[in-house]
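Subject: two folds for Thursday's group meeting

Dear M.,

Sorry for the delay on this. The cluster queue was jammed most of the week, so I only got both jobs back this morning. I'm pasting them in the order they finished. Each block is the input sequence followed by the predicted C-alpha cells. Could you check whether the formatting survives your parser before we put anything on slides? The first protein is the one we discussed after the seminar.
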Amino acid sequence: MESMKPELLPELIREAEAAAARSGVELLDVSLRGSGRAPTLSVVADKTGGITVEDCAAIHRSLRSFIEQAGPSARDWRIEVSSPGLDRPLKTERDFRLQTGRKILVEWTRDGAPRRDEGIVRAAADGVVQIEIDGQHVQIPLTAVTRACRPVQW
C-alpha cells in the first residue's frame, strides 16, 4: 500500500488553516509525526473563550476528507486536533488575547517591585495586556510579565 508523502505538509497546513478559519478558530501549530504507513498529523488550535469539541471535530473532518482525496493510504493516518492545554504558559500578545474572559495568574514587575496577581484577561493589544484584578483594570506591558498561565498550573 502506498504511503502518504510528508511533502504534503504545506497543503495540509493550508487545509487546516482554512478549516480553522471556517470554525472561527486560530491555528497555533501543525506538525507531522512519524512517517511511512502510519503518520500522525497533530493540530493545535484555540479561540477566544476556548476551543470546543465541535471546533476540533470540524477541523478533523475537513482534514480527513482532504487526506482521503490525496491518496489511497488515508485510513492509515492519525489526525489529532486539540487545544493548547491548560499548562501552556502565556507569553505572547496572541496567547493573552486567546485567554480573554478567562482567569489567569501573572507574575510581573511594577516600578521594579515583583508582583503576583490573579485576574481576568480583558484585552491584549499593542504590547499591553489588560487584566481585571480585584475589580480594577490594570494595564501590564508584556515586557513586565515574567510568568503567566491558567490557575491550574500555579
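Second protein, same layout:
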Amino acid sequence: MDRKPANKVPIGDWEALEDRIDRIIDRNRKLASENKALCEAQRNWSVERADLVRRNELAKSRIEAMISRLKSLADE
C-alpha cells in the first residue's frame, strides 16, 4: 500500500490555493470599493431627489396661489 499521509499536500497545490485566495481578496477589495462608491452615489441621488421634491412643492404652491389670485381677479 503506497498511500500519502492526509496532511501532505504538494507545494504546487498550496501555491495554486494561495494564488486563488489572493485573487479572491483582491476581488473582495474591488467590490467593497465599488459598493462604497455606489452607496455614496445613492446618497447623493437621494439628497438631489429630496431637493427636487421640495422645489416642486414650492413651485406647485406658488402656481396654486397665482391661480387663486387670477380667479379672484376674474370674479371682481
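Two things I noticed about the second structure. The mean pLDDT is 91. The helical segments are 11-75.

Cheers,
T.
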